[in-house]
Design brief:
alpha+beta, 40% strand, Lipocalin, 8-stranded antiparallel beta barrel, 4-stranded antiparallel beta sheet, 13 strands
């Protein structure tokens, strides 16, 4: 077998391994409540997974439905996989709420993480008022005002996490068109 073919196969195998690991790294177990016009839809409420990467959000419900949201033209606005408009109406701490134009709502409450915080990407939560939090797995939370300036952090945060939070928040704000 030619060296170039072997190298291509090794590169492909490595890429698949890295991409598979990365896809799982930002997914967290959660509890989801799906409702429409104030009614709770029991068949779609319960355990779920929530993933967020660079402004894109995936919610996998226990009944097999998946909601895929992509950033729209302003902060906290998305389009779902069917092209419907979605707005994140609440975000903070360990919960987020999304609302569709047709009255559908999904409330996501994240479960406490149980894996190593050193290699896990932080989670970014930005509320409707523009204030945000960058959350790490070791109970480190770095807080930002509506202009993206750091206002504080919890004692559990290392200087490295504060630096990573600044980079993560800046990237998020750029992607969401908030700068």
């Amino acid at each position: 077998m030619k060296t170039s073919t072997v190298l291509a196969v090794i590169t492909l195998a490595f890429s698949i391994t890295v991409c598979s690991h990365t896809a799982r790294a930002d997914t967290q177990d959660a509890t989801c409540e799906v409702r429409k016009d104030g009614d709770k839809q029991q068949g779609k409420s319960g355990p779920c997974t929530f993933g967020q990467r660079q402004g894109y959000i995936d919610i996998d419900l226990k009944n097999g439905d998946t909601v895929a949201l992509r950033p729209a033209n302003q902060a906290n606005h998305f389009k779902d996989q069917h092209g419907h408009k979605v707005v994140r109406t609440q975000s903070g701490g360990s919960s987020q709420t999304f609302k569709w134009e047709n009255g559908k709502h999904i409330s996501v409450t994240l479960k406490a993480p149980t894996y190593n915080h050193n290699n896990s990407p932080p989670q970014i939560m930005v509320g409707g008022n523009g204030e945000g939090e960058v959350i790490f797995k070791n109970n480190c939370v770095v807080y930002y005002d509506k202009r993206g300036r750091r206002t504080g952090s919890l004692p559990a945060c290392s200087q490295g996490q504060v630096d990573r939070a600044a980079d993560a928040m800046a990237a998020y704000r750029r992607e969401q068109g908030m700068n």
